[in-house]
């Protein structure tokens, strides 16, 4: 019997991880239950064994998207000085690689417009996840000497996620790269001490 619960947990985690990628890559309105189940090699019928509803699945996917983004941010900070960690984070966030990999990228840039139209659980998952990421950024800014790090973190996170979202929409890759480059330089100039 123990194997059954372990297998169920493993399957559930695989479903949440797959949903997290799909929700960021395609948007929550494009994810179907059958597509998700097919992604992990299961039939449609097993869905309700893992989630109470499609909305529950979307909320869990958003939570996982923010958790994986937070884990990456914490990994960037590990064994780096505050200024180096902040520079690395900004450079990775506003990079062509991040732009081109929606499914594993920051959920703020991908889901902001979608989240406003979702149910309460999904909006709450988005709000809490965004607050945690902004709080981590505020700590980084505080460590490099900003007195009003909380306000600056809100501004910087908004600018970075907006720039990334805009860069993803621009068809001309050169122009898209330029948006990322200009915002990266401006954010670093504001965030890092002179």
TrEMBL record:
Domain HTH tetR-type intervals: 9-69
Coiled coil: none
Keyword Translocase in record: no
The entry's DNA-binding region: 32-51
Domain of life where this protein originates: Bacteria
Molecular-function annotations in GO: DNA binding
Segment forming the signal sequence: none
Keyword entries, A-Z: DNA-binding, Transcription, Transcription regulation
PROSITE patterns for this protein: HTH_TETR_2 (PS50977)
Protein name as annotated: HTH tetR-type domain-containing protein
Organism: Cupriavidus yeoncheonensis
